[in-house]
Specification:
Layout: H1 3-13, H2 17-29, H3 49-67, H4 78-88, H5 95-104, E1 131-138, E2 148-155, E3 161-167, H6 172-186, E4 191-194, H7 204-207, H8 223-230, E5 234-237, H9 245-265, H10 270-286, H11 297-306, E6 330-335, E7 341-344, E8 347-350, E9 359-367, E10 372-379, E11 382-390, H12 391-394
Parallel strand pairs: 1-4, 4-5
Antiparallel strand pairs: 1-2, 2-3, 6-9, 7-8, 9-10, 10-11
Helix pairs in contact: 6-8, 9-10
Length: about 400
Amino acid sequence: MTKRLKESMYANLGIGKTRFFALLKMYRKSPLKFSIRYKRTFTNNQISQKIENLILKELKKEKELILNKEVPINKYNYSFIKEKLERKYKQKVSLPTIINRAKRYNFYIPKRKAKKKHSREVLTNYIGELIQHDTSYHLFSPPAKERWCLITSIDDYSRFILYAKLLKKETSWAHILAIQTMFLSYGVPLNFYVDSHSIFRFVQSRDSIWRRHYKLTDEATSQWKKVLDDCNVKVIYALSPQAKGKIERPYRWIQDHLVRLCVEEDITNIRSAQKILNQEIYHYNYRRIHSTTKEIPYLRFQRALKEKKSLFREFRIKPPFISPKDIFCLRVERTVDRYKKISLNNIELKINNAPWGAKVEIRIYLNLKTGLAEIRVWYKNKLLDIKKAKLRDLGMVHF
C-alpha cells in the first residue's frame, strides 16, 4: 500500500495514523468486544443537590428584591449570583447553569424591547468637557428600612465617577458640597449636565408658589447654580430621561450591586452602606472595563491627562473673595438697620463697619459636623464681618 493511499484511508476514516494503529491494536486484542462507540465515564451537566439548593436560595432572594417596589431593582442578576456562590460558598457554577435553573423554576424575566434606544457613543473629546450630575432616592438597603439619597457625578469622556455619596436627605447644601469636593479634587469643568430638579433650576409652572408670578423660567437662580456661576461653569439641562442615559447606566450598575451587597451584609445604617458604595465605586473606576469605551475609566482619565486632553481648570477664588467659603456657600441679601444690625430668620446680628441702610451680601458656609454656620458679610467688594450662629437657630438644619 502506497504512502498516498494510506493517507487517503486515514482521511476517509477521519482519524490520524496514531489513532488508527491504536484502534487496530485494540481490535487484535479482543475482536468480539471491540467497539469505537464513545462511552461516557461520568454524567455531564450535573450539579449536586447542595449547589442546586444554593442557586434556588439566591434566586428567591432576587425575586424578593424585584417585587419590592421601593428597591431600585427590576431584573435578575445571574452574574452576581455566580460570583456570590464562588465568593461566599466556594462553589463554581457556570452562568448558563444558573440561567437554566432560573427558567426551569420561574425565576426569569424576558428582556423587553426598548421603545427608543439612546446612543451610547461618547460625544465629548476631553475630560472635564461635560460632567453629568444626578441623584436618586431609593431603599438601597432593605434591612435598614429607610430610603436614602444617592448623589453621583461622572465625567462624560472617561466615564470616571468623580463623586458618590449616600445621604438621608437631599438638600441644596449636599449638592454644593458635592461641587466643592469635585472642584477642589479634580479642577473646574467646562459644563455641568443635570435634570430640571428644583434644586438645579427654577421652573415657572412648577415652582411659582415660591416666587412672584411674573417671574419667568431661569430668572430665579437656585443657590446651587449661583455657585457654578461664580466658578464660570455652564449648566445644561436634560430635556428627557433618555438624554441622561450615560449616567443612568452606571447608576443602574452601582445601585444593582449596592442593594444586593447591603442585603448580603445585612446593612442597617448609612455609614456601613457608604463603605460598600465606596468599594463598588473603586471597582467600577479602577477595575472594570467600560462596555462603551472599552477602557477602565481611571486609565482613560489618566491617558487624557497625559495627552493634554483635559478642560479641567485649576480652582481659583474669584476676586474680591478670599476663601473657598465665599464661593461654596449659600447667599442672601439684607439691609443694615440704623443700629447696624441685620436679621436672619429672626436672629439679629450686629455687623461691624456696616453703614446704615446699606444692602449687604451674606455668604453662609454650613458646618454640619459642628452644627454652626459661618456668616460672612460683604459690602462693595469688602469683607465687613464674620459671625457664627447655630444652624438650628438659623433654621438651616434641613437646608
